[in-house]
Protein 1
Amino acid sequence: MDSLFEDLRRMNKRQFLYQVLSFGMIVSSALMIWKGLMVVTGSESPIVVVLSGSMEPAFHRGDLLFLTNYEQDPIRVGEIVVFKVEGRDIPIVHRVLKLHERSNGTVKFLTKGDNNSVDDRGLYAPGQLWLTKKDIVGRARGLLPYVGMVTIYMNEYPKVKYALLAGLAGYVLIHRE
């Protein structure tokens, strides 16, 4: 860590500004890619990580899911959806178990994890018995197995996050020209 500060002190203003601008470009590029994915997929969160084993054997903890959420596509029984419940920050990945269609065109959904013994009514907001279209973040369209384990490890073990950041900073300092 001391060598990092020494390297920063040895940089002239132009080199330091170049490093700051490069970092800003990387961050802004990542944000533009994310926003572009949101527009293309129609989902507020086009990529999610499976955080539990409730969907095994279909999806495992750490799988990275790609989502779409097009308004014109009706949700069907058997589809795997990602939904958010009022009062919970983390989206849930489960399968649509039942549909409830009304004569006025509104559709409500009941979900359940493949590896769970009961439906999700216990996970919904108090008094909520069904999900509606506004609760749906997206539908699972593809996956990369276990790629999201990096995210899980960094959240469950913050020291891993700091070690990765320190390693990345060290690598950048060693390999810069």
Note: The longest helix spans residues 13-41.
Protein 2
Amino acid sequence: MEPMDIVGKTKEDASLPKATMTKIIKEMLPPDVRVARDAQDLLIECCVEFINLISSESNEVCNREDKKTIAPEHVLKALEGLGFGEYIEEVYAAYEQHKLETVDTVRTGKLSNVAEMTEEQALAEQQRMFAEARARMNGGITVPKQSDPEPQGPQPSLNT
């Protein structure tokens, strides 16, 4: 039997998209550095555990304040309480940027312009957001990434 976490789901149920995580890992490293598959898997597991840790501590902070909803300030307090205080400024800046980028979503209750985007526009927007995230992670320094060769064969469609 699989080990269960506190909400009754197996550890296999709590994961991050492997392709996305692999892309992030590769983009954060110099182009000549390779990462073994088991090391990638370990990094992804560490990310899942980190998210679980921060979520759990954020919930504790929320409960101590007699709140029912975890708010961004609970996450920041959790980071401080767990010894990750040096990341608070960067996390808060990323949160503020996220708020600016999603202001239309909050106002309208739906994603603006997503339905009108072509697949190419959506991909370009995703790449822009990845570049901004890389810049934030590198303290504003953009690390040039080795360009991947053009994919061969049929490509999966974003339309489902």
Note: Residues 1-9, 142-153 have pLDDT under 50 and may be disordered.
Protein 3
Amino acid sequence: MVIKVFLASSSGSTAIKKKQQDVVGFLEALKVDYTQLDIACNEENRMWMRQNVPEEKKPANGIPLPPQIFNENGYCGDYETFFDAKEDNMVYAFLGLPPPPGSKEAELADEEHVVENGTHAEETNAEENPDDSIEVPVEERNGNDEATEGETVGDEAPAEEDQAVEETDEVTEDTAQAEEEEEQEEEDLQSEEEEELRQLEEEEEAEVQEEEETE
């Protein structure tokens, strides 16, 4: 399997160049084999990239911006989805590659596997031994003890409710702040993308004019 990274070597956008460098640099750090395909100097690469990016992943104008990442002919994602995978230590899963032994992603996968197996084992044991979960009635012997325990639980409940309300208020404040920051980041990113699209369109118009003049 070959990882393909579609880039624009002559892009005038600083944001696009930075994103391309981030992707390439991270793949090299992981020692992942990949191939760079330039869409600025090769029309065939540009058309292939545009045709193979899923429609739902394309921007409103239908022109996907580099970098775009593929595993052979299978679409992996753009810079944003790559960045999210990197933050979650899931780059190999994003690329459709098995994580190497000893990597953080492999350790996470092992932990999830253990948790799944452990949960499954508990459920299986419960199903195989239903009698273990049936308790012998002890109301007559421990009637007074149960009443005392019920009163104790009732006393503790208000304190737990107060603590839950305080934690909910803190989570609400943190969520509101995170949403504001995320909205600001989206606005900045949208402005950058609009500028990048404008520059790419100008480059394409210039290429068309040069071809017309040549003809």
Note: The longest helix spans residues 139-214.
